Fold each of these.
Amino acid sequence: MEAKLTKLDKYDPKLIEEFIVVFAGYYFKAINETFDNSETLRVSWSMMNTIKGRPYPAIISLLLGANAHINNDLPYVLSKVMNNSVAENLLGDLVRIDKLLMRSGKQIIGSFTEQNTRLDFLKRRFQFLYYRPAMYTILYWRIIAWRNYQKLLDTDATLAQIDIRSQKIGNRLLRAARILLLVAPY
């Protein structure tokens, strides 16, 4: 008996390839603009520079990068590669990516060491305290990015809202980092 394909089982390899290439392009553009101290670097990416050389927790750096790439870049990428006829198929592929992220999240969290010995102990002994909040936050951001992409179809006014939202999230992460430094100073 053959399994029946659902909408989430269909995919378009060419679209996914284009999506990956464009998404990676945004990432590498941000890296290059950061390295060159470019004035065109988006605010959410420039927040990464504010923590460079400071003893902020590594998880904050990870989340700042995820914020910039997901909340800021992802809606733009989707608006460049999508059209309404393929939107449902790509949503299914994004769900597959989310599942991969959840499976690889523990490896990602386990791959870095916190400079602060207390935070590192917490991370190693109670990994779920890092893993679950970080991964579920990232998944939530991906859902919002999809919704923001859909809003981009309706109006260009959302472009400014996307930038403002990712900047606000970045500021919240920086505040959280300062609180963590008060709780577990270096």
Amino acid sequence: MLLETARPATRRAHHDLTAAQAERIRRIRRTGAYLLLIVATAVFVLPFLWMVTTSLKSDAENLAFPPQFLPDSFHFENYAKGWSGNLPFNSFLLNSVLITALSMVGNLISCVLPAYAFARLRARASGVMFSLMLATMMIPREITLVPKYIMFAQLGWVDSYLPLVVPEFFGVALYIFLLRQFFTTIPQEVIDAARIDGASELRILWRIMLPLSKPAIASIMLFSFVGNWNQYLESVIYLRTTEKFTIPLGLAMFSGQYATQYNQMMAVALITLMPVLILFFIAQKTFIRGVTLTGIAGR
């Protein structure tokens, strides 16, 4: 009788001990995850903070050894001197805005149409064509730099914005893939109902697919903006006249023959970084939702 009474108590004690151990393990894992996130955040944030503090240092503090993280006094005049100095950053800004805006329009037009075709239209060998398009994503763009330069040089497009803008009107495989994945999440019944009502494919795309695909479109527009706003390699290849330079090329011109004014360079870099940060924080929820849905959905 005593043994039968003691056994349930022993099992309860063992169960309580196991539950306590499991809770302790969960707390350790949670603490480790938080520590890992803190370290990762510091790795990404510290360079940005160093950039901010450098933009507020004096010339002597920039050259000090060992380096100091915080300046003795804040020199906000570095922003005005850097922007309105010897380099025409107002022209660089307008050039970057023009190239970025045209490229974003080109990406939107050239990627929406094939994405809708791959997602909703059934054509012979469409799967093969989609696979070939995805295969182009594995080709490094450095391989195509020389052939593209030869072609644009023969067309007489060197030292103009055409080599930077025109290719954007011929589609980007990554953006087409993301849009196609999102389009497949829209119920087919909605599209069939529109077809029964006599709507054309372009009308279905314009009135149904695009309004329902705002998160995905916002994602590719943000990708397009950041990519073209920070474009340096192709800009330095095709642009020769200083008045046509973009902001990344203007920042590269801060490197002087005898000395580099890092404080003014960092100040201008922060100014040009603001549009990217503002755009991301405004469209953060839409961007994350679009990336999530295009990543986990699709057939």
Amino acid sequence: MERSGFYHLDEFGVKNYHLKALLITSILTMVMLCTGLGYLTYLFEVGAEGANVTNYAEAVWLMLMSASTIGFGDFYPVTLGGRIVSVVMFSLGVGILGGIGAMFATRMFGFSDTNVKNRELRKQNAEILEKVTALEAKLDRLLQQKQ
């Protein structure tokens, strides 16, 4: 049994995702990463020679820009620690923001409708299989009666 609440299984074993729960979790994860990694960046960068990240807000801004891979260039890390944290944010942020974008695309362009159609087809196939099985049983009985 799936306990996270992110999806449930229908009668055909198809995972049906709860996009609202995934979206909220993704956004909260993104906020926690930006604030947490922003704090680490701030610790590495503050007081470093040539550093242009001089306060926590600038460090969080750097993490947001790193996550989106925009990187305006107004703030950038100059220490090895700050650069490592930025690379981590690049890697994690792209995945999270890409997932959020995919959720919006699914809702906007109706990709989830395909899942609904697949479930309907599976249900129809199950009904057809049941009828074919019943007909085969009737044919078998008729053939046995003729013999």
